[in-house]
Task: inverse folding
């Protein structure tokens, strides 16, 4: 096979493109800019750590099932671990969102990073909601009957029935976690490609005094 | 009384929820506490000194 033929292969082209956009030192950097030395930059990684616990505790719940998480003490513990890791996940994600909003983190060609974050947030809200209606207790029955009118009013009720326990559980344990993990991975890769957004530059121009403005006007 | 018993005595969860109602706004006390905690954490994160920040600045 000639060099030209090798260069034309999709695997070669993809490898070169990925290596060009995301070299190893950018993918796993050993240093960060000095402005990253602030607690406000900690909440993104806190969100991901919480997501890890959510997925791990969710896998444990899936292994043993509802009978176990409703009746045994270990089941109660893992169930609580799942709930509280979700609480920390949203707590940290909302603070991460506020921090990035006030930094205008979409600057410098980071619009796609911002938008993947937005979609991840909305996906997580749907994942949490389907979790609440899949608990298989009176609480989940109450939530689903309260939510059905709202969901039906949007038109989504035609194919997404909150009273359908099987459908909600499948969305909660397969589709939405998969979407959340893929989107989070994409979000982090985009952060690595573009780098962390720098702070706003200090305004250099000096605001003119009232006398100076009057002088210019005359 | 066990630790969980003490905890349940301080934070009784088997009672009706407490709500704050002001004009069109209605929010549970639990949700309000979480929002207030998030705001406090956000402000602290902005101003609390980050470990090693001074050292890093001196090295630059």
Result:
């Amino acid at each position: 096979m000639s060099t030209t033929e090798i260069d034309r292969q999709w695997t070669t082209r993809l490898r070169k493109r990925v290596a060009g956009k995301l070299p190893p030192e950018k993918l796993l950097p050993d240093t960060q800019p000095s402005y990253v030395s602030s607690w406000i930059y900690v909440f993104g990684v806190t969100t991901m750590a919480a997501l890890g616990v959510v997925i791990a505790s969710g896998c444990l719940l899936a292994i043993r099932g509802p009978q176990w998480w409703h009746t045994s003490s270990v089941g109660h513990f893992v169930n609580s671990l799942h709930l509280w890791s979700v609480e920390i996940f949203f707590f940290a994600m909302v603070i991460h969102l506020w921090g990035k909003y006030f930094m205008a983190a979409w600057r410098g060609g980071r619009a796609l990073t911002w938008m993947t974050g937005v979609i991840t947030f909305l996906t997580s809200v749907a994942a949490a909601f389907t979790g609440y209606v899949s608990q298989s207790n009176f609480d989940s029955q109450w939530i689903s009957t309260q939510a059905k009118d709202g969901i039906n009013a949007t038109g989504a009720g035609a194919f997404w029935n909150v009273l359908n326990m099987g459908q909600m559980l499948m969305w909660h344990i397969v589709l939405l976690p998969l979407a959340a993990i893929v989107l989070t991975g994409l979000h982090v890769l985009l952060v690595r490609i573009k780098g962390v957004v720098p702070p706003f530059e200090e305004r250099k121009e000096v605001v003119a005094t009232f006398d100076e403005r009057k002088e210019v006007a005359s | 009384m066990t630790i969980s018993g003490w905890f349940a005595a301080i934070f009784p969860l088997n009672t009706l929820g407490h709500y704050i109602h002001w004009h069109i706004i209605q929010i549970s006390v639990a949700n309000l506490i979480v929002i207030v905690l998030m705001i406090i954490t956000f402000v602290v994160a902005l101003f609390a000194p980050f470990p090693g920040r001074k050292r890093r600045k001196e090295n630059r």
